[in-house]
Write a structure and sequence with these properties.
- This protein is α/β, with parallel strands linked by helices and about 400 residues long.
- It contains 15 helices and 16 strands.
- The chain folds into two domains: about 190 residues, Glycogen Phosphorylase B (Rossmann fold, 3-Layer(aba) Sandwich), CATH 3.40.50; about 170 residues, Glycogen Phosphorylase B (Rossmann fold, 3-Layer(aba) Sandwich), CATH 3.40.50.
- About 40% of the residues lie in helices and about 20% in strands.
- Strands 3-4-2-1-7-8-9-10 form an eight-stranded mixed sheet, with helices on both faces. The chain has a six-stranded parallel sheet with strand order 13-12-11-14-15-16, sandwiched between helices.
- The protein is globular.
- The N and C termini lie far apart (about 45 Å).
- The C terminus is likely disordered.
Length: about 400
Protein backbone atom coordinates (compact mmCIF):
# COMPACT_ATOMS: atom_id res chain seq x y z
CA UNK A 1 0.00 0.00 0.00
CA UNK A 2 1.37 3.41 -1.00
CA UNK A 3 0.31 6.27 1.27
CA UNK A 4 0.73 10.00 0.57
CA UNK A 5 1.06 11.95 3.83
CA UNK A 6 0.10 15.59 3.14
CA UNK A 7 1.31 18.21 5.62
CA UNK A 8 1.79 21.97 5.82
CA UNK A 9 4.87 21.33 7.98
CA UNK A 10 7.96 20.84 5.85
CA UNK A 11 10.85 19.07 7.54
CA UNK A 12 12.79 22.30 8.06
CA UNK A 13 10.33 22.87 10.92
CA UNK A 14 10.80 21.11 14.25
CA UNK A 15 7.48 20.47 15.96
CA UNK A 16 5.18 17.67 17.02
CA UNK A 17 3.81 17.11 13.52
CA UNK A 18 7.21 16.71 11.87
CA UNK A 19 8.51 14.57 14.75
CA UNK A 20 5.52 12.26 14.36
CA UNK A 21 5.79 12.18 10.57
CA UNK A 22 9.48 11.28 10.72
CA UNK A 23 8.74 8.47 13.16
CA UNK A 24 5.99 7.12 10.89
CA UNK A 25 8.37 7.11 7.91
CA UNK A 26 11.11 5.33 9.85
CA UNK A 27 8.90 2.68 11.42
CA UNK A 28 6.51 1.80 8.58
CA UNK A 29 5.97 -1.97 8.44
CA UNK A 30 6.46 -4.18 5.37
CA UNK A 31 3.67 -3.64 2.86
CA UNK A 32 3.09 0.03 3.76
CA UNK A 33 5.18 2.65 1.96
CA UNK A 34 4.79 6.25 3.11
CA UNK A 35 5.84 9.40 1.31
CA UNK A 36 5.43 12.89 2.77
CA UNK A 37 3.99 15.51 0.41
CA UNK A 38 4.59 19.14 1.39
CA UNK A 39 5.68 22.51 0.03
CA UNK A 40 8.67 24.68 0.89
CA UNK A 41 10.84 27.53 -0.31
CA UNK A 42 13.24 25.10 -1.96
CA UNK A 43 12.31 21.80 -3.65
CA UNK A 44 13.38 18.46 -2.19
CA UNK A 45 12.63 15.07 -3.71
CA UNK A 46 13.56 11.69 -2.28
CA UNK A 47 11.98 8.28 -1.95
CA UNK A 48 10.07 9.17 1.23
CA UNK A 49 9.85 12.96 1.06
CA UNK A 50 8.58 15.42 -1.55
CA UNK A 51 8.72 19.18 -0.98
CA UNK A 52 7.35 21.11 -3.94
CA UNK A 53 8.77 24.61 -4.35
CA UNK A 54 6.08 27.16 -3.68
CA UNK A 55 5.24 30.68 -2.50
CA UNK A 56 5.06 31.24 1.26
CA UNK A 57 2.40 33.35 2.97
CA UNK A 58 2.72 34.56 6.61
CA UNK A 59 0.18 33.08 9.05
CA UNK A 60 -2.21 35.68 10.51
CA UNK A 61 -1.31 36.62 14.11
CA UNK A 62 1.91 34.59 13.71
CA UNK A 63 3.86 36.23 10.91
CA UNK A 64 7.12 34.47 11.86
CA UNK A 65 5.69 31.29 10.34
CA UNK A 66 4.48 30.67 6.81
CA UNK A 67 2.21 28.34 4.92
CA UNK A 68 2.82 27.58 1.26
CA UNK A 69 0.40 27.78 -1.65
CA UNK A 70 -0.27 24.26 -2.99
CA UNK A 71 0.63 23.43 -6.58
CA UNK A 72 -2.27 21.09 -7.11
CA UNK A 73 -1.33 19.72 -10.54
CA UNK A 74 2.22 19.01 -9.36
CA UNK A 75 0.95 17.04 -6.36
CA UNK A 76 -1.51 15.18 -8.58
CA UNK A 77 1.23 14.27 -11.06
CA UNK A 78 3.43 12.84 -8.32
CA UNK A 79 0.54 10.96 -6.71
CA UNK A 80 -0.23 9.26 -10.02
CA UNK A 81 3.42 8.41 -10.59
CA UNK A 82 3.72 7.04 -7.03
CA UNK A 83 0.59 4.92 -7.55
CA UNK A 84 -0.89 6.16 -4.30
CA UNK A 85 -3.54 3.94 -2.69
CA UNK A 86 -4.53 6.15 0.24
CA UNK A 87 -4.18 9.81 1.23
CA UNK A 88 -3.37 10.92 4.79
CA UNK A 89 -4.28 14.53 5.65
CA UNK A 90 -2.32 15.78 8.69
CA UNK A 91 -3.09 19.52 8.61
CA UNK A 92 -6.13 21.54 7.46
CA UNK A 93 -4.06 24.29 5.80
CA UNK A 94 -3.37 24.78 2.08
CA UNK A 95 -1.48 21.47 1.71
CA UNK A 96 -4.32 19.73 3.53
CA UNK A 97 -6.67 21.12 0.90
CA UNK A 98 -4.34 19.67 -1.73
CA UNK A 99 -4.83 16.28 -0.03
CA UNK A 100 -8.60 16.63 -0.52
CA UNK A 101 -8.07 17.55 -4.19
CA UNK A 102 -5.78 14.59 -4.91
CA UNK A 103 -8.02 12.13 -3.06
CA UNK A 104 -11.06 13.30 -4.97
CA UNK A 105 -9.41 13.34 -8.40
CA UNK A 106 -7.90 9.87 -7.93
CA UNK A 107 -10.92 8.52 -6.04
CA UNK A 108 -8.79 7.47 -3.09
CA UNK A 109 -9.81 6.90 0.54
CA UNK A 110 -8.79 9.59 3.01
CA UNK A 111 -7.45 9.30 6.57
CA UNK A 112 -7.03 12.41 8.73
CA UNK A 113 -4.93 13.08 11.81
CA UNK A 114 -5.63 15.99 14.15
CA UNK A 115 -2.52 17.51 15.71
CA UNK A 116 -3.22 21.14 16.63
CA UNK A 117 -6.27 22.83 18.12
CA UNK A 118 -6.17 25.76 15.70
CA UNK A 119 -9.52 27.04 17.00
CA UNK A 120 -8.08 27.53 20.49
CA UNK A 121 -4.99 29.16 18.98
CA UNK A 122 -7.12 31.53 16.88
CA UNK A 123 -9.15 32.58 19.93
CA UNK A 124 -6.09 33.14 22.10
CA UNK A 125 -3.89 34.90 19.55
CA UNK A 126 -6.62 37.13 18.10
CA UNK A 127 -8.53 37.76 21.33
CA UNK A 128 -11.70 37.06 19.34
CA UNK A 129 -13.86 34.06 20.39
CA UNK A 130 -15.89 34.47 17.21
CA UNK A 131 -12.80 33.85 15.08
CA UNK A 132 -12.05 30.71 17.10
CA UNK A 133 -15.60 29.44 16.52
CA UNK A 134 -15.23 30.14 12.81
CA UNK A 135 -11.98 28.18 12.70
CA UNK A 136 -13.61 25.23 14.48
CA UNK A 137 -16.43 25.21 11.95
CA UNK A 138 -13.94 25.37 9.09
CA UNK A 139 -11.94 22.41 10.46
CA UNK A 140 -15.06 20.26 10.47
CA UNK A 141 -15.04 20.49 6.68
CA UNK A 142 -11.71 18.78 5.75
CA UNK A 143 -11.82 16.31 8.63
CA UNK A 144 -15.48 15.54 7.91
CA UNK A 145 -14.38 14.08 4.57
CA UNK A 146 -12.04 11.56 6.19
CA UNK A 147 -13.09 7.95 6.63
CA UNK A 148 -11.12 7.91 9.89
CA UNK A 149 -9.70 10.71 12.06
CA UNK A 150 -6.83 9.94 14.42
CA UNK A 151 -6.27 12.14 17.49
CA UNK A 152 -3.35 12.16 19.95
CA UNK A 153 -5.32 12.10 23.20
CA UNK A 154 -8.67 11.27 24.74
CA UNK A 155 -9.03 14.97 25.55
CA UNK A 156 -8.80 15.81 21.83
CA UNK A 157 -11.28 13.09 20.92
CA UNK A 158 -13.82 14.57 23.33
CA UNK A 159 -13.09 18.03 21.94
CA UNK A 160 -13.95 16.91 18.40
CA UNK A 161 -17.08 15.09 19.55
CA UNK A 162 -18.25 18.28 21.28
CA UNK A 163 -17.64 20.05 17.96
CA UNK A 164 -20.14 17.62 16.35
CA UNK A 165 -17.67 15.25 14.71
CA UNK A 166 -18.88 11.66 14.35
CA UNK A 167 -17.61 9.65 17.35
CA UNK A 168 -17.39 6.36 15.44
CA UNK A 169 -14.82 7.83 13.05
CA UNK A 170 -12.44 9.15 15.73
CA UNK A 171 -9.68 6.91 17.11
CA UNK A 172 -6.94 7.74 19.59
CA UNK A 173 -3.43 7.52 18.18
CA UNK A 174 -1.06 8.21 21.14
CA UNK A 175 2.45 9.55 20.71
CA UNK A 176 5.76 7.82 21.27
CA UNK A 177 9.32 8.86 22.05
CA UNK A 178 12.81 7.92 20.90
CA UNK A 179 14.34 6.71 24.16
CA UNK A 180 17.75 6.25 22.56
CA UNK A 181 18.03 9.87 21.48
CA UNK A 182 16.40 11.22 24.64
CA UNK A 183 18.08 9.59 27.62
CA UNK A 184 19.70 10.58 30.94
CA UNK A 185 23.18 9.62 29.68
CA UNK A 186 23.21 12.80 27.55
CA UNK A 187 23.55 14.88 30.74
CA UNK A 188 26.40 17.40 30.37
CA UNK A 189 28.15 18.88 33.38
CA UNK A 190 29.93 21.51 31.24
CA UNK A 191 26.54 22.63 29.93
CA UNK A 192 25.16 22.86 33.48
CA UNK A 193 28.23 24.84 34.51
CA UNK A 194 27.62 27.29 31.66
CA UNK A 195 24.05 27.73 32.94
CA UNK A 196 25.39 28.26 36.51
CA UNK A 197 23.03 25.63 37.93
CA UNK A 198 23.58 22.92 40.52
CA UNK A 199 21.69 20.72 42.97
CA UNK A 200 21.20 23.85 45.08
CA UNK A 201 20.12 25.94 42.11
CA UNK A 202 18.23 23.54 39.80
CA UNK A 203 17.47 24.15 36.12
CA UNK A 204 13.77 24.44 35.25
CA UNK A 205 13.37 23.75 31.55
CA UNK A 206 10.88 24.63 28.84
CA UNK A 207 11.36 23.37 25.27
CA UNK A 208 9.16 24.39 22.37
CA UNK A 209 7.72 27.26 20.41
CA UNK A 210 7.85 30.61 22.19
CA UNK A 211 4.35 31.90 21.63
CA UNK A 212 1.38 33.05 23.65
CA UNK A 213 -0.69 29.88 23.25
CA UNK A 214 1.98 27.90 25.13
CA UNK A 215 1.15 29.68 28.40
CA UNK A 216 4.69 31.02 28.75
CA UNK A 217 3.60 34.34 30.25
CA UNK A 218 2.96 32.34 33.44
CA UNK A 219 6.67 31.68 33.89
CA UNK A 220 7.72 35.08 35.37
CA UNK A 221 5.07 34.99 38.10
CA UNK A 222 5.81 31.31 38.76
CA UNK A 223 9.51 32.11 39.14
CA UNK A 224 8.73 34.95 41.55
CA UNK A 225 6.62 32.59 43.68
CA UNK A 226 9.50 30.11 43.82
CA UNK A 227 11.87 32.85 45.01
CA UNK A 228 9.39 33.83 47.72
CA UNK A 229 9.37 30.19 48.84
CA UNK A 230 13.15 30.35 49.10
CA UNK A 231 13.75 28.05 46.11
CA UNK A 232 16.80 29.10 44.14
CA UNK A 233 16.51 28.12 40.48
CA UNK A 234 17.25 29.16 36.93
CA UNK A 235 14.81 28.93 34.03
CA UNK A 236 16.19 27.51 30.76
CA UNK A 237 14.16 28.19 27.63
CA UNK A 238 14.99 26.29 24.43
CA UNK A 239 13.21 27.41 21.29
CA UNK A 240 12.27 30.46 19.27
CA UNK A 241 9.14 32.39 18.43
CA UNK A 242 7.30 35.71 18.59
CA UNK A 243 7.35 35.86 22.40
CA UNK A 244 11.15 35.75 22.66
CA UNK A 245 11.73 39.48 23.18
CA UNK A 246 8.96 39.72 25.79
CA UNK A 247 10.28 36.74 27.74
CA UNK A 248 13.82 38.12 27.69
CA UNK A 249 12.52 41.29 29.28
CA UNK A 250 10.34 39.54 31.87
CA UNK A 251 12.93 36.86 32.73
CA UNK A 252 16.30 38.66 32.74
CA UNK A 253 17.99 35.84 34.66
CA UNK A 254 16.79 33.05 32.31
CA UNK A 255 18.96 31.26 29.75
CA UNK A 256 17.66 31.40 26.18
CA UNK A 257 19.28 28.83 23.90
CA UNK A 258 17.38 29.68 20.71
CA UNK A 259 16.31 26.97 18.28
CA UNK A 260 18.53 23.86 18.45
CA UNK A 261 18.98 20.66 16.41
CA UNK A 262 17.42 17.60 18.01
CA UNK A 263 20.76 16.19 19.19
CA UNK A 264 21.45 19.40 21.12
CA UNK A 265 17.89 19.45 22.44
CA UNK A 266 18.44 15.94 23.85
CA UNK A 267 21.52 17.23 25.72
CA UNK A 268 19.56 20.19 27.07
CA UNK A 269 16.75 17.92 28.32
CA UNK A 270 19.14 15.57 30.11
CA UNK A 271 21.08 18.45 31.68
CA UNK A 272 18.05 20.05 33.35
CA UNK A 273 16.33 19.07 36.61
CA UNK A 274 12.61 19.59 35.94
CA UNK A 275 10.42 20.21 32.88
CA UNK A 276 7.69 22.83 33.11
CA UNK A 277 5.00 22.83 30.41
CA UNK A 278 2.28 25.42 31.17
CA UNK A 279 0.36 25.08 27.88
CA UNK A 280 -3.39 24.54 28.22
CA UNK A 281 -3.97 24.22 24.46
CA UNK A 282 -1.69 21.37 23.34
CA UNK A 283 -3.35 18.22 22.09
CA UNK A 284 -0.40 15.96 22.99
CA UNK A 285 2.89 17.63 23.88
CA UNK A 286 5.60 15.33 22.47
CA UNK A 287 8.14 17.27 24.54
CA UNK A 288 6.53 15.98 27.73
CA UNK A 289 7.47 12.43 26.72
CA UNK A 290 10.94 13.54 25.59
CA UNK A 291 11.53 15.16 28.99
CA UNK A 292 10.55 12.01 30.86
CA UNK A 293 12.71 9.87 28.57
CA UNK A 294 15.59 12.16 29.59
CA UNK A 295 14.88 11.49 33.26
CA UNK A 296 13.05 14.73 34.03
CA UNK A 297 9.96 14.89 36.21
CA UNK A 298 7.32 17.05 34.53
CA UNK A 299 4.79 19.67 35.60
CA UNK A 300 1.83 20.08 33.24
CA UNK A 301 -1.58 21.74 33.17
CA UNK A 302 -4.79 19.82 33.77
CA UNK A 303 -6.12 21.30 30.50
CA UNK A 304 -5.23 19.72 27.17
CA UNK A 305 -3.67 16.40 26.19
CA UNK A 306 -0.18 16.44 27.79
CA UNK A 307 -1.51 15.13 31.12
CA UNK A 308 -2.24 11.85 29.31
CA UNK A 309 1.48 11.49 28.58
CA UNK A 310 2.61 11.19 32.21
CA UNK A 311 1.61 9.44 35.42
CA UNK A 312 0.60 11.96 38.05
CA UNK A 313 2.40 11.54 41.35
CA UNK A 314 4.87 9.07 39.81
CA UNK A 315 6.54 10.85 36.89
CA UNK A 316 5.47 14.38 37.70
CA UNK A 317 2.55 16.56 38.68
CA UNK A 318 -0.65 17.78 37.03
CA UNK A 319 -1.60 21.26 38.23
CA UNK A 320 -5.37 21.70 38.38
CA UNK A 321 -5.22 25.34 39.39
CA UNK A 322 -4.48 28.53 37.48
CA UNK A 323 -3.00 29.92 40.72
CA UNK A 324 0.74 30.10 39.99
CA UNK A 325 1.52 29.78 43.71
CA UNK A 326 0.18 26.23 43.46
CA UNK A 327 2.48 25.57 40.50
CA UNK A 328 5.43 26.93 42.47
CA UNK A 329 4.61 24.79 45.50
CA UNK A 330 4.33 21.64 43.36
CA UNK A 331 7.68 22.39 41.70
CA UNK A 332 9.31 23.09 45.06
CA UNK A 333 8.06 19.75 46.43
CA UNK A 334 9.38 17.92 43.36
CA UNK A 335 12.84 19.40 43.70
CA UNK A 336 13.37 17.94 47.20
CA UNK A 337 16.22 15.48 46.63
CA UNK A 338 14.38 12.42 47.97
CA UNK A 339 11.37 13.14 45.74
CA UNK A 340 13.38 14.21 42.70
CA UNK A 341 15.43 11.01 42.46
CA UNK A 342 12.32 8.81 42.63
CA UNK A 343 10.39 10.91 40.12
CA UNK A 344 13.34 11.00 37.73
CA UNK A 345 13.67 7.22 37.78
CA UNK A 346 9.92 6.66 37.33
CA UNK A 347 9.84 9.18 34.46
CA UNK A 348 12.49 7.24 32.56
CA UNK A 349 10.83 3.89 33.24
CA UNK A 350 7.49 5.21 32.01
CA UNK A 351 8.99 6.65 28.84
CA UNK A 352 10.47 3.24 28.01
CA UNK A 353 6.89 1.92 27.69
CA UNK A 354 6.02 4.61 25.12
CA UNK A 355 8.01 3.47 22.09
CA UNK A 356 7.17 4.76 18.63
CA UNK A 357 6.77 1.18 17.39
CA UNK A 358 3.92 0.67 19.83
CA UNK A 359 2.48 4.16 19.39
CA UNK A 360 2.25 3.87 15.61
CA UNK A 361 0.19 0.68 15.56
CA UNK A 362 -3.20 2.52 15.47
CA UNK A 363 -2.04 4.54 12.46
CA UNK A 364 -1.04 1.55 10.36
CA UNK A 365 -4.17 -0.32 11.45
CA UNK A 366 -6.31 2.61 10.29
CA UNK A 367 -4.56 2.61 6.92
CA UNK A 368 -5.28 -1.07 6.41
CA UNK A 369 -8.89 -0.87 7.57
CA UNK A 370 -9.78 2.23 5.55
CA UNK A 371 -8.13 0.81 2.44
CA UNK A 372 -10.08 -2.43 2.91
CA UNK A 373 -13.33 -0.59 3.59
CA UNK A 374 -13.59 -1.93 7.15
CA UNK A 375 -15.97 0.09 9.34
CA UNK A 376 -14.59 1.23 12.72
CA UNK A 377 -15.69 -0.52 15.89
CA UNK A 378 -18.56 1.03 17.86
CA UNK A 379 -17.73 2.70 20.15
CA UNK A 380 -13.92 3.13 19.92
CA UNK A 381 -12.21 1.95 23.10
CA UNK A 382 -11.00 4.58 25.54
CA UNK A 383 -7.20 4.66 25.44
CA UNK A 384 -5.05 5.50 28.43
CA UNK A 385 -1.26 5.93 28.34
CA UNK A 386 0.76 2.89 29.32
CA UNK A 387 2.11 3.04 32.86
CA UNK A 388 5.19 1.68 34.59
CA UNK A 389 4.81 -1.79 36.01
CA UNK A 390 2.61 -1.73 39.06
CA UNK A 391 1.25 1.75 38.40
CA UNK A 392 -2.22 2.49 37.11
CA UNK A 393 -2.77 5.32 34.62
CA UNK A 394 -4.41 7.35 37.37
CA UNK A 395 -1.14 7.24 39.30
CA UNK A 396 -2.27 4.79 42.01
CA UNK A 397 -0.71 1.45 42.87
CA UNK A 398 -2.30 -1.43 40.98
CA UNK A 399 -3.51 -4.47 42.87
CA UNK A 400 -1.78 -7.75 42.02
Amino acid sequence: MNVAVFTDNDFDKINGVTTTSRAALQSSPPGIHLRVYTAAQWPVESEKYLAVRSIGIPIPFYTEMQVYMPRLREFLRHARADRIDLVHLTTPGPIGLAALFVARRLRLPLVGSFHTDLAAYATLLSGCPWLGSLMREYMRWPYGRCARVLVPSQHTRELLIQAKSKPDRIDVWPRGVDTTLFCPSKRSQPLRDSWHVSDRRPALLYVGRLSREKGLLKLPAMSNCLHRLGIQHRIIIAGDGPLLATLRELLPDAVFTGALPRERVAEVFASADCFVFPSATDTAGNVVLEAQASGLPVVVSSSGGPRENMVTGRTGVVCHSDDLRDWAQEIAAMLVQSNHGRLSHEARMYALTRTWERALEPLYRAYREVRAGVEPALPPPRVFPASPQGVCSAGTQCSR
